[in-house]
């Protein structure tokens, strides 16, 4: 059966996830209408992913841009409702936990359009994270919950959600497996920044709890800047001005660069000695590339990475970062917790067979 699908994207990680799902939909001959809410709009936060990963030009761009949670969510909600009324798709596909996700969930559910939520069931159990609210609401409203792991199934069961759950792996594995070899063949990011394999630390910070507080952010930069290795920091636009200001007072050398495209990022993550991050996706990618990771948070959704010893939470112990980078305890094991790289294909098959 040929499906008509509206896929909602808006932020950097959603472009990456959509790349592989959109490809699987095309291969199976379904009709996809791609709607970009426009939450991320800088070329290096948006267009670069379309160009490098071959994502089709969205049929609609809602131009939501930056703003408060209510401003972003409501603008996306109004725009999406109009499109869904006109297009009447069989399914709406939503990814992850951003404001584009919750807007899509509210718009579709009130129009009685079925929702397929990809990367469902993840929980940090910290409702001070905006993403936690977005995930909980989206999971409740979704017909299909495509989860990466049994842990995600258990999380949903604890909330009384027991139907429409499918363990399919993680589409970010698909993306990583498909595009890392292309990055290794094409990217000159290491040479461009005079970096050599396993001699540098890769840093990303963008969570409001770290990035929106001067004292906290300075503390992190001081600690990270004390590691032996060169530190490379692709700065999220959220904190560009703050980082420039804080680094004037931080007596350490950190190489700040603009956000990079996915191909460069795969090469940086794989070649890094250690990754230090508060990103959800990057913690998981560190595990997949088998690069040790320190996560600057008190909790994580990707608990397997911590359990296996590849990821250490340092939200409360930022000052230990230099010692942990020098002497990262040897990880105990590695398993393909997040699938074999065929999640997008499996999702499309399940939707087609409904
Ligand atoms: C959003 C998501 C977060 C996700 C992250 C991925 C929500 C609630 N948050 O957070 O879950 O982890 O994307 O990166 O949806 N900005 C620009 N140019 C851009 C985009 C953003 O300058 O292209 C700046 C603006 O000053 C903006 C700020 O970054 O106010 C924050 O952007 P926003 O999309 O609100 O949140 P993120 O931190 O990116
Ligand atoms: N990423 C990228 N370039 C960068 C930083 C991140 O391509 O400069 C990719 C990263 O590899 C991962 C995704 O963006 O696939 C993660 O996005 P982000 O950290 O913004 O969001 P989160 O995963 O925390 O929601």
Widest beta sheet: strand line-up: 3-2-1-4-5-6-7
The best one-word shape is globular
User: Averaging pLDDT over every residue, what do you get?
Assistant: 97
Q: Which CATH class of the largest domain?
A: Alpha Beta
Question: Helical content, roughly?
Answer: 40-55%
Largest sheet: 7 strands, parallel
- Beta-strand share of residues: 15-25%
Poorly predicted runs: none
Order of helices and strands, N to C?
EHEHEHEHEHEHEHHEHHEHEHEHEHEHH
Count of domain modules: 2
State the end-to-end distance.
9 Å
What is the count of β-strands?
A: 13
How many helices does DSSP assign? 16
Chemical compounds bound to the protein: uridine-diphosphate-N-acetylglucosamine, uridine-5'-diphosphate
CATH architecture of the largest domain: 3-Layer(aba) Sandwich
Oligomer: single chain
Structural class: alpha/beta
The CATH superfamily of the largest domain bears the name Glycogen Phosphorylase B
* Rg from alpha-carbon coordinates: 20 Å
* CATH topology description of the largest domain: Rossmann fold
Detailed description of the structure:
The mean pLDDT is 97. Helix 7 packs across helix 12 (262-271). The chain folds into two domains: 4-170 and 339-352, Rossmann fold (3-Layer(aba) Sandwich), CATH 3.40.50.2000; 180-326, 3-Layer(aba) Sandwich (Rossmann fold). The strands form two sheets. It has a seven-stranded parallel beta sheet, with helices on both faces. The chain contains 16 helices and 13 strands. It has 354 residues and is α/β, with parallel strands linked by helices. Strand 9 (230-234), helix 11 and strand 10 (255-257) form a beta-alpha-beta unit. It is globular, with a radius of gyration of 20 Å. The longest helix is centred in the N-terminal third of the chain and has 19 residues, at 69-87. Residues 11-13, 39-42, 45, 66, 97-99, 130-131, 206, 237-238 line the site of uridine-diphosphate-N-acetylglucosamine (UD1).
């Amino acid at each position: 059966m040929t499906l008509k699908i509206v896929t909602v994207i808006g932020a950097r990680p959603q472009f990456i996830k959509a790349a592989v799902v959109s490809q699987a939909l095309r291969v199976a001959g379904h009709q996809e209408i791609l709607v970009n809410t426009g939450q991320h709009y800088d070329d290096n936060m948006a267009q670069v992913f379309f160009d490098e990963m071959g994502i089709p030009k969205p049929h609609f761009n809602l131009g939501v841009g930056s703003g408060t949670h209510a401003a972003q969510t409501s603008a996306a909600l109004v725009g999406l409702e109009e499109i869904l009324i006109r297009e009447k798709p069989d399914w709406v596909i939503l990814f992850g936990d951003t404001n584009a996700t919750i807007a899509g969930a509210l718009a579709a559910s009130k129009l009685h359009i079925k929702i397929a939520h990809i990367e469902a069931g993840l929980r940090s159990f910290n409702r001070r994270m905006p993403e936690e609210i977005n995930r909980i609401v989206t999971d409740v409203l979704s017909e299909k919950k495509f989860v990466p792991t049994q842990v995600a199934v258990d999380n949903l069961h604890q909330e009384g959600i027991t139907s429409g759950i499918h363990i399919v792996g993680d589409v970010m594995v698909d993306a990583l497996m498909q595009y890392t070899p292309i990055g290794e063949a094409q990217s000159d990011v290491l040479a461009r920044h005079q970096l050599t394999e396993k001699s540098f630390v890769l840093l990303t910070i963008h969570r409001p709890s770290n990035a929106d507080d001067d004292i906290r952010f300075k503390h992190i930069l001081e600690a990270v800047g004390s590691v032996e290795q060169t530190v490379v920091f692709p700065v999220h636009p959220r904190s560009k001005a703050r980082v420039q200001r804080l680094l004037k007072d931080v007596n350490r050398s950190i190489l700040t660069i603009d956000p990079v495209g996915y191909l460069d990022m795969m090469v940086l993550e794989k070649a890094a000695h250690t990754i230090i991050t508060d990103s959800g996706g990057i913690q998981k990618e560190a595990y997949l590339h088998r690069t040790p990771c320190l996560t600057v948070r008190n909790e994580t959704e990707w608990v397997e990475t911590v359990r296996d010893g590849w990821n250490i939470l340092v939200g409360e112990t930022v000052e230990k970062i230099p010692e942990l980078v020098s002497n990262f305890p040897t990880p105990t094991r590695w398993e393909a917790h997040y699938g074999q790289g065929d999640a997008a294909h499996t999702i499309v098959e399940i939707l087609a067979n409904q």
